[in-house]
Structures are given as C-alpha cells and as structure tokens.
Amino acid sequence: MALKRKSKQFKWHRKHLLGLRELSAEEITYILDTAEGFQQISTRSVKKAPPLRGRVVVNLFFEDSTRTRNSFALAASRLSADVIEFTKKASSVSKGETLLDTAKNLEAMGIDIVVVRHNAGGASRFLSRSINACVINAGDGFCEHPTQALLDVYTIRKLKGTLKGLKIAIVGDIAHSRVARSDMWAMTKLGAEVIFVGPPTLMPGQVEQLPVTVSYSLDEVIEKVDVINMLRIQFERLGGNPFPSVREYSHYFGLTVERMKKAKPDILVMHPGPINRGLEMESEVADGSNSVILEQVKNGLAVRMAVLFLVNQAAAQKG
Ligand code: CP
Is the CB of 148 under 6 A from ligand 1? Predict the structure, then answer.
C-alpha cells in the first residue's frame, strides 16, 4: 500500500482508540496518512484488501446510528474481516444483561475488535480495561467521537491542504456534543483555531478551560471562518428548554442562505449528521456548493479502515 505522506520514523502502538484528547498531533497525522492509502481501495473494481482476514469485528451499538455503524461495517468488510452486528434492541440487554457481560460473551466467541457506541461517557475506556479485544470508541455520551473528528479533519486537510492557521467555527449544541469535543482536540492539535458558537445555555461547563474561543453571535463569526461545522441539536439529551423556541434558535444560529452571503466564498460547510433540516441549516445550504457533508461520509470509510488496520496491527505486535 502506497502511503504518500506517512512519516517513516513513526510507529503506531495503540490497540484501542478511545479518544483524541490523549493522541499527539503526530499520531493523528499518522491515522490521516494511513487513511489516504486506503482511499484508493474504494476506486478499484474489487473493493477488498486482506489485512483483517480471519479477524472478527463486532459493532456493539447501544445507541442508534446510520453513518458510524454502517461505515465501520463496510470498512471492516473491505479489510476482509468477519463482522457481527449487535444492536441493543435485538439483544439480551433487554433482559438486563450488562455492557461488560455482553462484551465478555461476545469475546468468548473469539472477537478481535469491538466498535462500541454507548450513552455513558467512558464506556469504551471501561471496556478496554475489562476485555482483551481492541476497543474503538464510536461515540460515548457527551465525551468523544474520535472517528467522526478524524474524518472531519481528513476532509478539511484534503480540501484545504492543511489545518494550520485555519479558523473553524463549531456551532450549536456544544454542551451535548461528543463531536465538538473530539473535533476541538483534533483541530487544535493540527494547528487550527476553533471557535465555539452558540447560546450560553448550550455551552459546556468550564468552557474557558478548553483550547477554544467562545462567541454567542454567529453573525460576528461567519465572515471570519474558513470552515463551519454545524452541530445537531440533541433533543434526546436536552432535559430542559435551552432556547425559547426552535424558530428563535434557527433565527440566531441557523446557517441560512442569507447568512451564507457574508461567508468567505470558499468556506467549507460541514455537519456530522443527522441534520435537522431547517433548524441547524436550510436545505439550500446543506445541499449547496460549499457543503462537504457527503464528502465527510465518504472519507469516513477510509478513516475507519485506517483505524481498524492500525489497532489490529498494534494488537498483533503486542502478541
Ligand atoms: N455522525 C454520526 O455519528 O452519525 P450516526 O449517529 O448516524 O452514526
């Protein structure tokens, strides 16, 4: 496999990917470089490579997902792994079985890599200390969603060349967003300036201790930024009323066609999905020429192939 930019000196050693806070810029760059090598597999007539042949990957999803779960399933399949799909609704969790017992029972069947999404922050870290298989965090509570952020920075690097010196706005429900946290770590480590934008009620506690600046006005920020990442309002996690009405939120923080007139012509418009159309952004913007939302999804496949490949390689080296 040809890896164009990969540092020859660097050796990946992590058998788990739990978050980006603990990764160095060099490690993040190494994953992106490895993903570049995998991108071209999707252009072949036979879209398969053998590195995970004989390995078993389980998608252990305790929350719903369209993009992450299917992307990991396809990534594992492209690397020739066997894939087990676990969903909470169709499992013995409904009979009271715990996360740990579920994982240990699957491990007894001989799984090698667990991709876990859970509404409890720290679930993937807990599993990594409790089972022998590699663990990849596919989203834990409000904490981290590392592969989403990796595909976000991969997309930005591909389209802008570098993240160094870019201004990136992350807009909306920051408080409940694991994407915002992982993006913040990845983007700032790679040299971008990150601005959290949203109403005070949707900012995380102790935001002043994070490596970001904060703005409560999208209108003040929109003309300055190179990239804008619009977050989903996580209605299922809100618990109260953080804004008076959906209409008011959309008026102040929605990415509208009118607001886009003030943006740089080459601004990248991103969204991790799923989109609440008409709330976070108007459909004309989501589907417009600056939108890279489907490019993000496409790049997620190569990024997840890279992560599966690297954790498996590290586990094999540890023996
Ligand atoms: N971006 C993201 O995590 O989407 P899904 O919830 O569909 O996986």
Answer: yes
Residues 195 and 291 occupy one common structural domain: yes
pLDDT, tens only, 47-79:
899 999 999 999 999 999 999 999 999 999 999
Same domain? For 251 and 165 the reply is: yes
Q: Which of 62, 68, 231, 233 to mutate to test the pocket of ligand 1 (most atoms within 8 A of CB)?
A: 68
Same domain? For 102 and 198 the reply is no
Residue-wise DSSP of 226-290:
SEEEEPPP-HHHH-S-SSS-HHHHHHHH-B-HHHHTTS-TTPEEE--S---BTTTB-HHHHTSTT
* Dist. CA 70 → ligand 1 center (Å): 9
In this prediction, residues 134-153 reach a mean pLDDT of 98
CATH code: domain of residue 89:
3.40.50.1370
Query: 243-263, pLDDT tens digit by residue?
Result: 778 889 999 999 999 999 999
Q: Is the CB of 177 under 6 A from ligand 1?
A: no
Average pLDDT, the chain: 94
Do 160 and 291 fall within a single domain?
yes
For residue 218, report the distance from its CA to the centre of ligand 1, in Å: 24
What are the helix (H) ranges across the chain? 25-39, 67-78, 99-108, 123-128, 146-160, 178-189, 218-221, 235-238, 246-253, 257-260, 283-286, 293-318
Q: Which domain holds residue 54?
A: 25-144+300-318
Q: Give yes or no for residue 65 CB within 6 A of ligand 1.
A: yes
Count of domains in the chain?
2
Q: Tell whether the model's pLDDT for residue 1 goes beyond 60.
A: no
Residues 140, 159, single domain; the answer is: no
Nearest CA to ligand 1 atom 1: 272
Q: Across-strand partners of 215?
A: 197
Give CA–CA dist 85/182, Å, rounded. Answer: 25
Percent of the chain with pLDDT over 70: 97
Residue 6 lies in a domain: no
Domain for residue 15, yes or no? no
